[in-house]
């Protein structure tokens, strides 16, 4: 029962799985707001996920990037969201240090 409760995702959120077996921590699960799905940077990652994994997957949405890259992407989205509320400066380019790769 406790394990089942831990796996549930609250309304308005989505579970994703990032990383690879080759990474130190392996795969990691993150819960993100559904609003990320509409952010241009995240949309690019979703397009890459479609290329790598296709549409039919079970369990959390798999994303083809390292945990470090995902954490950087999440930080960038959060930073832009905060800046948007203050200044409205949205810039939608991927940082050169962020690279998506097949997990």
TrEMBL record:
InterPro entries: SAUR_fam. One of its GO terms (biological process) is response to auxin. It comes from the Eukaryota. Pfam families: Auxin_inducible. PANTHER family: AUXIN-INDUCED PROTEIN-LIKE-RELATED, SAUR FAMILY PROTEIN. Belongs to the ARG7 family. This is Auxin-responsive protein. It comes from Actinidia chinensis var. chinensis. The lineage of its organism: Eukaryota, Viridiplantae, Streptophyta, Embryophyta, Tracheophyta.
